Structure formats: structure tokens, C-alpha cells
Amino acid sequence: MRAILDIAWNELRILFSDKGIWLNLVILPILISVAVGFANGGGASSSTEGPRLVVDVIDADNSTLSQQFLADVRAANARVLLCPIDNDEADACGMGETALLPEVAQNRLEDEASLALIEIPAGFGESVLSGQQATVLYRSNEDITAPQYILQAVQVAAQRAGGAQAAVSVANEVASDLSILEFSDEADHATFEQGVREEAQALWASDPITVEYVLASVEPQAEGTGNAGFQQSIPGIGSMYVLFTVLPLAAMMIRERKQWTLQRLVTMPLSRGQILGGKLLARFVMGMIQYGVMFGFGLALGIRYGNDPFALILLMVVFTLCVTSLALAVTTLLKTEPQADGITLFMSLTLAPLGGAWWPLDIVPEWMRVIGHISPIAWVMDGFHSLIFFNGNLGTIIVPILVLLAMGAAFFAFGVARFRFE
Amino acid sequence: MHQNMVEVRDLSKTFKRSNGEMLDAVKNVSFDIRQGEIFSLLGPNGAGKTTTISMISGLLTPTHGDATIGGHSITRQPLEAKKLLGVVPQEIALYPTLSARQNLEFFGKMYGLSGAALSKRADEVLEFIDLKDRQHDKIESFSGGMKRRVNIGVGLLHQPRLIYMDEPTVGIDPQSRRRILDTVKQMQTEMGMTVLYTSHLMEEVQEISDRVGIIDHGELIAVGTVGDLIQKVGEEDRLILKVGSQVVSELLLTRFRHEVEGVTGATHEQAHSNGSDGSATQPDGLIIVIARRGRRALPDLIRVANDSGLDIVSVEVREPDLEAVFLHLTGRELRD
């Protein structure tokens, strides 16, 4: 073991004797992770206290149902700020004392003072109650290529209103067909319908079926876990740079063979396992240092990585082991340093985007997601997403860990079987 | 204590070429190296010297046969055998971005040295190779000769009983070469080491070796002291007559053999040399005559040549040496 440590230490000393290493180990990966972090929505906070979605409302109906509709919009997205109804002392709506007339609302929309305008026409409540078609006008300047959160909220509210009225109609028909209820007068009937509507609304509110969703690029989830863009870019670019740091084992082995230092070690009283172990250990340590640099930088930015640091570190260890074994396997297929440099660059720049290091695989087509899992990066990113975005733990990343271990074992067996010292 | 430091028995190595053919690089080589002697393996490039030594030093696994170092088999007790062996490869097997001292200390650790003993040994070796004042300089800043000396120093770190040096004078200036040859003699006389030396340079092998093994096409064709080997070709000299582009008839060679006293052989070789303007090549014919007491035969050789209308451009008389031995044994020159 002593010889393995000595060989690894010597390798690290040689690597760090090159001043240029700081460029590749620290400066470039950090710069790239910042750029990719912003590209992935960095700067957008994941907490519900983030920027409000300003939506102007002209409620010409001003009925109980129109107010219920607006309450449903609020409930559907906590970030929606209905103006001027929900304006606060700090004038979050940015409209001062100005009355929200249709022309004003239109100008605000064009000036992007508001993101959307909801117009509820007079008679909206009456139309709903009478079972007639009711219309709400929605105008928006949201980017059609971006997730349309406000429209989704309005649609949710419309579905709830329509659903509640549908419940009333069904109740009326059932009561009429079965003659199980008799109403003394119109007021009595109206009370019944109001009761059904409120019950339906209450059921909507309790959300008997819920779908939890996460848009990793911009939409966060766990409480106070920081910035989603950097939560993607730090592990993603970090993993890519682990490839950049570890795969050059191939070039280094070829260089050592060429300068005969590898053969000299073989002529010394050492086993071949000790020599190979020392070389691989050095590259493994370099990979872990790379992760340390990247995740350390993220911590300095205030990025949080979930609640299970042990699982996080274990995931890094397993991925780095896998990449170290991959580097050994690749070494056996190459003969010259230029070949090794080219293949290292090619593999890093192919496996990284394929595996979701630059952007989340959630946004790529299903078939690409399947192909992407050829790359070890896809598996380690699955693990990171589980830990960071969903507050996962060791149990939730067991599959990525087992797959990475299996890949690593296969690469290692191939590499050891084919490696030649002379 | 073994009388022989190294015993090589039927060592063979077969490689598979990329086209699938098998190449017998070393064929059933056997020899012994006695304690404290300088034993040289002599042969042209590609003869099998390095392959033989690579097997003895544990770098290559023999296809067949075995060797022992200090009684330890290289195939069954490789670590024990390697502890007794110091290796000085032909290549500068050092880390160029580390200093001389860092290289020595790292390889010293690999030989099992540590702590104060390692530091002391590094100092001694730096002293021996005369690089103490440059010990903290990076290898990449050294001259070729200085790198060679550090390369040798690494092999001496653990005070091995056997040191193997593979063409240690390749590519260096005459002054550094002289220094290395002196170092080899010092290792034998002052440190009591056994030295296994390989070279394709006949002159240095002849100068330093107690015994020589001549290897060609993977086979050991002769072993003995320099004197023993020269005895194999007798006391005959070689006379090399340059005749330029003139035609040499077989009749002339026959006349040399029959009419000149002491001549036992005569051959004609056609070589090419650069023209005087350096751009073209000119035919450069040589007549090689083997003769007892060659200098005495020289006047008659010139007379017979003149009678045949051949002008001798120049004459060189070579006394018997290892080059002649190799030529005698293989029919080829060592530098072919």
C-alpha cells in the first residue's frame, strides 16, 4: 500500500508542478459552470418569494363567481399578483393611483409593466349560473417558448369554475329525474345550487388528485435549495470536468511508456498491481479534487445540494471510480499521445451533453434520454437531480450508484486484461 | 553464496507480429555471469540484446526458459530477484519536470528506502554522479550527459549486487562517454558490483568487459573473454583496400589468395559514398583481404593489383578485434 501511495503522490506532484493546471482545474470549469448556470435559469430563485407575475384584472362582472374565479387563479400559482386587487403598500403592481381602465391595461401590457391581462365581462356570473357559455378574455406577452405559468393558472381556474357548474347541472338533473328533492320556491332552488357549487369548489380546493411537477431549468421545488440553474450547472460541468481531469490518464500512461519511466518501475521490486494502482489512485484523487473545487464554488455561492451529504459524496466517489476505470480501458486502445488527447476531448465533449451535463435531460426527447444513458454522466446526473432537486437520499440514488459501479467494473476488467506495461 | 550472479538457461521470446506471423526474437539463449565481473552482450541493433535483458530484468515474460539473479528465479521469485538488480535503461527514464533529487528520492522509495536512509543514499549517489550542485534543478534543464548520469544514479540507489546498463553511451559527447565508461569500471572496482552491459559499440565493449557474449538474430553465437574470442579468428589482420568505382574481377581476388603469402581470403564489396559536392552518391568499392601478418603482405597486394590495372585509392590495416570476430562468426559487419 505504501508503494501505491508513493506512486500516486508522485503523480500528483508532477501534475501540480505544471502551473497551467489551475486553468483547467479551477478557472475554466468555474467560468463555464457560471455561464451554463445562467443559461439554465441561474439567477431565478427557487423559493416562492421570488419575482411576482404581474397580471392586470378588469372585473366588469364583480360577482361572487368572478371573485371565486380570481381566487382560483391565485391559488393555482402563488406568484401571480392580480392588479390592482392585490396591490400592496409598496405598489408591487407599479400603477400608483392610476385606475385600471382598458386603455391603461393595454398600454401596461405593451410596455411589459404587466405580463398578462384578464378581462371578466359583465354577466359572467349570470352566464355561468344559467349554464350558458361564459367567456374570460386573456391577453399575454409571455414568451411562447417559455413555460406559460399565468395561462396555466387561468386555465386551472376556468376548469374549476366550469367543473363546479357542471356539478350543479348534474345535481339538478339527478334531483329532477329521481324526484328526490322538491323546492318550495326559486330561492330554495338557488340555495340548493349554491350548496352544490360550494361543495364542488371545496372538492377542487382539496385537490383529490394532484400532480407534482418540477421544471429544473427555472422552476424549483425543495424549500430554500437555492438557484436551480447552478444546481444543474455545478454538478453537470463538474462531472464533465472530472472526465477532462481523469481521462488524460491515457495520454499520461503513453507518455510514461515512451519515456520509459513505466518500464523502469516494472524492473523495480514492485508488483504490476501496485504500479497500476498508484497511477489510477492519482487520477481518482484528481477527479475528486475537481468535484471539490466545483461543489466548493457552489457552496460559496450559497447553492445547497439537498439533505444527504454522505449520499452526495458517495455518488461523486462512484462516478469518479467509473471514469477512472473508463480511462484505463481507453488507455489500452490507444498508441500515441495525439490519439489520446483527441479521444479524451471527443469523449468528454460527447458524453457530457449526451448525459445531461449541460442541460437537464428532462428537456430532450424520450429517445435522446434513452441514448443519453449510455453515458455515465447521465446516471450521475440522475443521482444529483434526485439528491439536489428532490431532497433524495441514498435509497433514491441506489440505481445510479449500482449502474455506475457495474460500468466501472466492466471498464476495469477490460482495462486490466488488455493493459501492457512494455 | 552463488558463484554465478546470473544464470540464464534456454531463454526464448517469441512475439506475434501485427500480420499474425510469429517472430523468434530470442532463441534458447544460455549464459552465466560471474560475481563481480563486467559482462557485455554485443550485437547489432535488433539482434535480441534488449529483449534478453528485458526478460532478465522482469520487463518481459520469457516464452520459454528461465534465469536466476543471485539464485532467485525471475519467473518464480521476481520481486526477490529484482531487489538485487539495478537497471540503467537506454532511454532517459526520468521525470523531466522533477528535479534530480526528486527523481532519486522517488525511485529510492520504490526500492524500499525511506527516511534518513533514503536522504543519505540520495546524497551519496548525487556525489558519485557529480551532480550535487545541480540536485534541485529540473531534469529537463540538464544536458544529455547529465541526464545520463542521473539515469545511472537511479540504478545505483539501492546498492544492487547486479547492475544492468543498456547502451548507456548512446547519443552523448565523447567527454561524457568517457566519464560513463570510467563510472562503470568504478562500480566494479569500488562497489564490487556485477555489471551486465549491452552495446553495439565494439570499442567500448572491448575496453571495459571481462567477458563478452555475442548475440545475433536472437542467438548467442559466442561467449568468452575478448582474448578468447579473438583467438577464434586467429591472428589474422584485415586489410581494407579502397578502389572507388573501378571494376574488380574475380580473377584478381583469386590471384590475391594464391600469389600473396599469408592471404587466406579476399572479397569485394560495393558501397556508396557521397560525392565531393555532397549531393550525389558515388560507387565506393572495397576489397577486404584477410591475411596473417597483413602489413607484410601489403606490398605484394599492391603489386598484383597494379599488374591487373587496378589503382588502390587507400589502404587500412585492422588488427584482430571484436568487429573481426563478429564478421568471422556471421559474415556481416557489426554495424550492418
Please characterize this protein's 3D structure.
The complex is a heterodimer of chains A (422) and B (336). Chain A has 16 helices and 4 strands. Chain A is mainly alpha-helical and 422 residues long. Chain A has 2 domains: 242 residues, no CATH class; 154 residues, abc type-2 transporter like fold (3-Layer(aba) Sandwich). A 4-stranded mixed sheet of chain A has the order 2-1-3-4, sandwiched between helices. In chain A, helix 2 packs across helix 11. The radius of gyration of chain A is 30 Å and the shape is elongated. About 6% of the residues of chain A have low confidence. Chain B is an alpha/beta fold and 336 residues long. Chain B has 2 domains: 228 residues, Rossmann fold; 85 residues, MTH889-like domain (Alpha-Beta Plaits), CATH 3.30.70.1340. Chain B contains 11 helices and 14 strands. The radius of gyration of chain B is 24 Å and the shape is elongated. At the A-B interface, helix 1 and helix 10 of A face helix 2 and helix 3 of B.
Q: CATH superfamily of the largest domain in chain B, called what?
A: P-loop containing nucleotide triphosphate hydrolases
Number of strands of chain B: 14
Low-pLDDT parts of chain B are none
**Element string of chain B (H = helix, E = strand):** EEEHEEHEHHHEHEHEEHEHEEHEH
Count, helices of chain B: 11
Using the coordinates above, name the CATH class of the largest domain in chain B: Alpha Beta
Percent of residues in β-strands of chain A: under 5%
Q: Which chains make the largest contact? A: A-B, 22 and 28 residues
The largest beta-sheet of chain A arranges its strands as 2-1-3-4
The coarse overall form of chain B would be elongated
Integer tally of domains of chain A: 2
